[in-house]
Write a structure and sequence with these properties.
Helix content: 10-25%
Structural class: mainly beta
Largest sheet: 9 strands, antiparallel
CATH architecture: Sandwich
Order of helices and strands: HHEEEEEEEEHEEEHEEEEEEH
Number of domains: 1
Shape: globular
Number of helices: 5
Radius of gyration: 20 Å
CATH topology: Jelly Rolls
């Protein structure tokens, strides 16, 4: 005799699947993961396509370097993270904390895409020291030369910005002074009233699509808590070398930083929002990683 499920059983199964859906990682993300540092039990990365060690340099010049955390203002806090532990930046310091970029970032030898994700917890108005503050900066040269960063502006109220700078000669061939460049021509996305707070974690995502593509305009987008805040569209030419390329964390920053991840694909808005719902953040992808 054929058994036909009742409507109640069908609805219960549907709701069960829907409830479980947010905990499922989007397909293909584990394979695209280049770097992941949870900062739970170690400052080093659990997943790395290149060097997994974290390093400390005495200054932005990065001419004196030691493996590990060696700054009086930066420590691993095993209990204060979004998921377990976090990096705690307790005061402004000159030391630079970073991961090497070789193989931990997408290659710029041709067209490339990528994404950088992490969490922050701070009150910009009360926690940050005077001056510009860069929670993350990626470059092998300078802040305005083949560089990707997010920063807080120096004046109150603090604004939050994404900067995507191609090779200096590409984006500024006339070598204009920064103050002479109209704001609308600067490669920045600015959020006037960012949602950061000491009482809650805020998720930051940066996606890069079709960088260095000759026939397409590149697209860089900033997301906060899974919502797009603005984009930069246009031709890009970014050239990174292996020797000096670094993922620098917490330049003059005071606050918490957690669950850093780098992917070799531009995540969609839906993928970012799904990641935010994973029970252990990027760590939930580890079971899917080959």
């Amino acid at each position: 005799m054929r058994i036909i499920p009742t409507l109640g059983i069908l609805l219960s199964a549907t709701f069960a699947l829907a409830a479980d859906e947010p905990s499922r990682a989007p397909a293909g993300l584990a394979e695209a993961l280049l770097l992941h540092a949870s900062f739970d039990d170690s400052p080093n990365a659990e997943v790395a396509s290149g060097d997994s060690s974290i390093y400390t340099a005495t200054s932005l010049k990065r001419d004196k370097v030691r493996a590990g955390l060696h700054s009086p203002g930066v420590r691993l806090d095993p209990r204060s993270g979004r998921y377990g532990g976090a990096l705690a930046f307790t005061k402004k310091v000159e030391e630079i904390i970073y991961f090497t970029g070789k193989d931990n970032l997408p290659s710029t030898d041709g067209p490339f895409s990528g994404s950088i994700l992490f969490w922050m917890r701070l009150s910009p108005a009360t926690d940050l020291p005077p001056g510009y503050v860069d929670p993350i900066q990626i470059t092998d040269k300078n802040w305005n030369d083949a560089s990707l960063f997010v920063d807080f502006t120096k004046d109150l109220p603090r604004k939050f910005r994404l900067g995507v700078f191609s090779d200096y000669q590409f984006w500024n061939p006339q070598d204009r002074e920064w103050d002479a460049i109209p704001p609308q021509e600067r490669p920045l996305v600015t959020v006037d009233e960012p949602p950061f707070s000491r009482d809650r974690w805020t998720h930051v995502a940066i996606t890069l699509r079709d960088m260095n593509a000759e026939q397409k305009s590149g697209l860089a987008t900033l997301y906060l808590d899974g919502k797009p805040q603005g984009s930069l569209r246009g031709k890009q030419q970014i050239t990174w070398g292996d020797d000096r390329l670094a993922i620098m964390l917490g330049i003059y920053y005071v606050g918490r930083l957690d669950d850093l991840a780098v992917f070799n694909k531009a995540l969609s808005e839906q993928e970012i929002q799904r990641i935010l719902q994973l029970p252990s953040g990027i760590g939930s992808l580890m079971a899917k990683r080959p």
